[in-house]
Write a structure and sequence with these properties.
The chain is α/β, with parallel strands linked by helices and 382 residues long. It has 2 domains: 3-151, Serine Threonine Protein Phosphatase 5, Tetratricopeptide repeat; 166-381, Vaccinia Virus protein VP39 (Rossmann fold). The protein has 15 helices and 10 strands. The chain has helices at 3-7, 17-28, 37-46, 60-67, 74-89, 104-110, 118-138, 151-160, 166-170, 196-206, 225-231, 245-253, 269-279, 296-309, 327-342, and strands at 174-177, 180-183, 189-192, 215-219, 237-242, 262-266, 284-289, 310-318, 346-354, 373-381. The chain has a 5-stranded parallel β-sheet with strand order 6-5-4-7-8, sandwiched between helices. A 3-stranded antiparallel β-sheet has the order 1-2-3, with no helix packed on it. The longest helix has 21 residues, at 118-138. The radius of gyration is 24 Å and the shape is elongated. The chain starts with a helix and ends with a strand. The structure holds S-adenosylmethionine. S-adenosylmethionine is lined by residues 190-191, 199, 219-226, 241-244, 247, 268-270, 290-292, 294.
């Protein structure tokens, strides 16, 4: 363990400003704020901190969070906050994963820090700033720095994957089973019925008006769960936009095309909704968005369409799985979405609900939601 790492285990109490002075001195002398325990171990073994193979990066911030005294006083909390500020000032990363597959956020929560508290929020804010800054460089996605050495390989896998590449997805065969819609070959979960309660909540959010006046749009049919909830509100007009041929076939077989109040918009929303915008005569009381194999950049593009199609008192919502493979990342996206929507004159309110953690992931290749809470967004013009 290096001197920097040792200091961040808080060997003496109380935690005073002396810690900040000492840590700053070490960082100013050239010790990187990202210096990991794995690098120390490699140095001790090989005389160089170049690592051949390591999936984890246990950074000084992880050590600080892991060592945080449980009985931290208010004064000590301010000092720890200054220590975090100092580490970030010297380039500490917010999204590294440590030897126990944990983020700094996970460790802070384990040490009794509240998510609304200053220390957790400091990491979230670092994530938001970093993400906003890096967005243009890496295409709008937050990347967890688990395995920098294999980044290229990972990028190639993503380019070929149904979950990340829309062209690949739209030409992949799908399969409906009892409680999920999956891609036939590689078992990517497109939709799963554990989301039913979320879909019910979402339908209630966008179907607030009297049925006789209600015109709503759902983007992404999937298993039709939300569309069935929407239908139970008997809307005057119910638009459904869907791109995948297998899903459209299922909708036809199940009679959605024959319902008098339903309009099916076939094709990608990027095409059909822009055509609606061009017509300039149709506006919605509620819009819901839940697609697959799209990225946050697509949502940014969608905001442009939403502001053109939503009535002044309308509500927009979406399936909020952004960054939900890690709680810290989910919390960072929560803020980013609110900030981005502000630029469109929209305001996002979240309702937090708990979700079961025992979802049936065995039916699919990988889980796409790893938080035990869900931020349900309700978005309106300010
Ligand atoms: C997660 S499912 C939607 C689940 C739905 N909310 C439900 O309650 O069952 C995503 C759906 O979006 C469709 N989709 C993906 N990209 C799309 C796009 N660009 N435009 C329209 N639909 C798209 C997929 O084919 C899939 O049917």
């Amino acid at each position: 363990m290096s001197q920097l790492h040792h200091l961040l285990t808080f060997p003496s109490r109380p935690v005073t400003g002396d810690y900040v002075t000492s840590v700053r001195k070490l960082l100013a002398s050239g010790i990187p704020a990202t210096y990991t325990l794995e690098q120390v171990a490699a140095f001790e073994k090989n005389g160089t901190d170049e690592m051949s193979e390591s999936a984890s990066n246990t950074t000084p911030l992880h050590i600080l969070a892991r060592s945080l005294p449980l009985d931290l006083s208010e004064d000590e909390t301010s000092v720890v906050l200054s220590l975090m500020d100092t580490l970030f000032e010297y380039g500490a990363g917010w999204n590294f994963i440590d030897y126990e597959d944990k983020t700094v956020g996970d460790l802070l929560v384990e040490r009794g820090q509240k998510k609304t508290g200053a220390l957790y929020q400091r990491v979230v804010d670092a994530g938001v700033s970093a993400e906003l800054l890096l967005r243009k460089l890496n295409g709008g996605e937050i990347e967890f720095l688990e395995d920098p050495q294999h980044a290229e390989e990972q990028q190639q896998q993503e380019a070929d994957s149904t979950a990340d590449n829309q062209q690949v997805y739209l030409s992949t065969k799908l399969e409906y089973n009892e409680n999920a819609l999956v891609t036939r070959e590689n078992r990517d979960g497109v939709m799963m019925d554990w989301e039913t309660h979320i879909m019910e909540l979402a339908a209630n959010t966008i179907c607030r008006k009297d049925a006789a006046e209600l015109t709503v749009l759902n983007i992404g049919f999937g298993m039709g769960i939300i569309d069935n909830f929407i239908a139970s509100h008997s809307p005057h007009k119910h638009y459904i936009c869907e791109a995948h041929p297998d899903v459209l076939a299922k909708m036809r077989a199940d009679g959605w095309y024959d319902r008098p109040n339903v309009v099916v918009l076939e094709g990608r929303w990027q095409d059909s909704l822009n055509a609606l915008l061009d017509q300039g005569s149709l506006f919605f009381d509620g819009i819901y968005y839940d697609t697959f194999s799209e990225h946050y950049q697509d949502m940014l593009d969608l905001y442009d369409v939403v502001v053109g199609l939503l009535k002044p008192d309308g509500v927009f919502s979406f399936f909020n799985g952004l960054g939900a493979d890690r709680p810290l990342c989910y919390d960072v996206y929560n803020k980013i979405v609110s900030l981005d929507l502000q630029d469109y004159g929209l305001q996002c309110q979240y309702t937090t609900i708990s979700v079961p953690t025992d979802q049936q992931w065995h039916a699919v290749k990988r889980s796409y939601f790893n938080c035990d809470y869900y931020y349900h967004p309700q978005i309106r013009f300010r």
